[in-house]
Amino acid sequence: MDSNLNIDIKDYNGPLDVLLELVHKNKFDLKNLPILSLCNQYIAFIVDLKKVSIEIASEYLLMAAIMVFLKSKYLVNKDKEEDVKKVTRFLTNRLTILELVNKNSIKLFELPKFKQEFFPNTQKHKLKIEKNFVIKDKLIDLLKAYANIHKRNQQYTLKFSSTKLFTIKDGQNVISKEILSNQDWFTLKSLLPDNLKSDILNKSFFSSTFNASLHMAKEDKNEEKKIVIKQSLPFSDIYLKKDE
């Protein structure tokens, strides 16, 4: 049998597995190993194993020799031998690395397995992603948002257009001009010009001429009465005539 061939002994794959099992079984601390006790247990394991099978892998026998060497050094002069301390540190480091490998290998095999728990995409075509937008806002919200965006991009100059309204003085001039050419009764409505383009100007004209007619029909110490006003019914046409 080739001496370099590693064989499995029970559940162990190498001598370090045996040592690590002994450490765990006795609850030893890897950072502070009791080398003498560990040597005795490992040598006893090899002795029992040789009774069953003489064909033991060379690595197990080599480790047994190392453990016998450590035990002898500890018994002879365990405090002053620097070689013993180096071998002890080396053995401790190897056991620490082996323990980490065992723990990580267990975690590795617990991960999902390829083609057993997850599978590759066998489709030839690439995955096509379609986006559908659902608008939950109302139309007025969209219009407000659009208006705010448009407003930020625009600069407005607010200008107010002034409208010239009629005054009481303007009303007096219109009535005075009418009574000079018309000696008969005429309605206040008939004085309305045809070129007024807005309702505001119409109301302004009626308001100014009506107030002017009241002033002109009033007798005053400083100013004589100029016109006479009559109205047959409430809300009916108002008639004006020059006072004689």
Shape: rod-shaped
Structural class: mainly alpha
The low-pLDDT segments are 1-9
Strand content: under 5%
Summed up, the domain count is 2
The main sheet orders its strands as 1-3-2
Helix content: 40-55%
- Largest sheet geometry: 3 strands, antiparallel
The oligomeric state of the chains shown is single chain
Q: Distance N terminus to C terminus?
A: 157 Å
Radius of gyration from the alpha-carbon trace, in angstroms: 59 Å
Report the total helices. Answer: 7
Round the mean pLDDT to the nearest integer and report it: 76
Overall strand count: 3
Description:
With 244 residues, the chain is mainly alpha-helical. It has 2 domains: 1-141, no CATH class; 168-242, Arc Repressor Mutant, subunit A, CATH 1.10.10.580. The chain is built from 7 helices and 3 strands, in the order H-H-H-H-H-H-E-H-E-E. It has helices at residues 15-26, 35-52, 58-77, 82-110, 139-152, 168-181, 199-216; strands at residues 186-187, 227-230, 239-242. It has a 3-stranded antiparallel sheet with strand order 1-3-2, with helices on one face. Helix 1 crosses helix 4 (82-110) and helix 2 runs antiparallel to helix 3. The radius of gyration is 59 Å and the shape is rod-shaped.
